[in-house]
Q: What sequence folds into this?
């Protein structure tokens, strides 16, 4: 397989940086564009997204994973991120990827983990990917987001400290303008939703509600036994990767 460093300039003039992992052969390939979670990076937790990208490449499917602006190695500071910027970055990356000579623009899959799954679900109706993959989509970050920030500000807390990352209340005030399930409605393509049975952040009801929006006959909710939110452990990571690869092959054949 080939590993290609990539970068492009988004609509705000910020450079987004990422990695494309593609099969060794020449030509255009189906491609999964993967969105990382809150406070994360393109590699995923303990390299989860690297493992997945390499497995997809072995199946003849490329994978593009990038750091959102204000995250990781992309331009900007974390405190300036908003939910709107995440959606805009997703659309900008999608449009950039369609122009690349290794991408089959008719076989592009949008994928996301945790916050990235929430973003992917919200972006899908506008982007209209060939298929959608939601790994424990983190809609819970929307629940009461504005109230949390108002309560913090009432106590004189100017920002959140997310393990060393400065988190602005502006993110929550922007986020509360959206509605996860209403925004996700209208996408008609096949959708895979994966949840660990021990996910401590995303409950079963969230995944079932998302599934109810997707009436395509190939849409399904799959459970990974004993997996937590980050699919920690070799059996859990292997099961997740196998499900993603199986679905990606099914919808791009």
A:
């Amino acid at each position: 397989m080939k590993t290609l460093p990539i970068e492009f300039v988004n609509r705000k003039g910020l450079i987004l940086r990422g990695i494309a992992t593609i099969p060794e052969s020449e030509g255009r390939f189906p491609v999964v564009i993967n969105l990382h979670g809150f406070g994360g990076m393109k590699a995923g937790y303990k390299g989860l997204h690297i493992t997945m990208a390499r497995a997809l490449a072995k199946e003849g499917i490329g994978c593009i994973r990038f750091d959102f602006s204000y995250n990781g190695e992309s331009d900007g500071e974390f405190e300036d991120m908003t939910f709107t910027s995440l959606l805009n970055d997703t659309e900008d990356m999608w449009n950039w990827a369609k122009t690349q000579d290794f991408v089959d623009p008719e076989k592009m899959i949008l994928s996301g983990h945790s916050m990235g799954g929430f973003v992917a679900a919200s972006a899908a109706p506008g982007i209209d990917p060939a298929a959608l993959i939601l790994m424990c989509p983190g809609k819970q970050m929307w629940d009461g987001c504005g109230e949390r920030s108002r309560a913090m500000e009432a106590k004189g807390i100017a920002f959140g400290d997310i393990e060393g990352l400065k988190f602005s209340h502006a993110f929550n005030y922007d986020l509360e303008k959206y509605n996860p399930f209403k925004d996700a409605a209208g996408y008609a393509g096949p959708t895979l939703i994966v949840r660990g049975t021990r996910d401590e952040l995303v409950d079963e009801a969230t995944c079932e509600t998302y599934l109810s929006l997707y009436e395509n006959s190939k849409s399904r909710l799959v459970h990974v036994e004993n997996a937590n939110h980050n699919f920690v452990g070799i059996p859990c990571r292997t099961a997740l990767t196998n499900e993603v690869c199986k679905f990606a092959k099914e919808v791009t054949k």
Summary: The CA atoms of residues 22 and 90 lie 20 Å apart. The chain is about 35% helix and 25% strand.
